[in-house]
Write a structure and sequence with these properties.
The protein is an alpha+beta fold. The protein has a domain at 19-68. The protein is 16% helix and 18% strand.
Amino acid sequence: MAKLEPIPMPKHPDFAKCSARSSGFGDYVDCLSEDPYYCFYALKFGDGYLCFHPERNQTVARTEALRKGLLQEGPLSIAA
């Protein structure tokens, strides 16, 4: 009989590695992290994931600043 592996439980993300963008409707935020499947704050929605982290708007601001080259990659965040 094959041994069953336990299903990994959702975990709290490393906020410094999170990335996100505004979804364009309401106050919803799209998660852009590499593996949101195991994130405690990610919710599967259509083909992607929505982010419900309490500081998701700061993540959006940090991601935009990184994309525009206004911020170096690292643990710093931008207050919304």
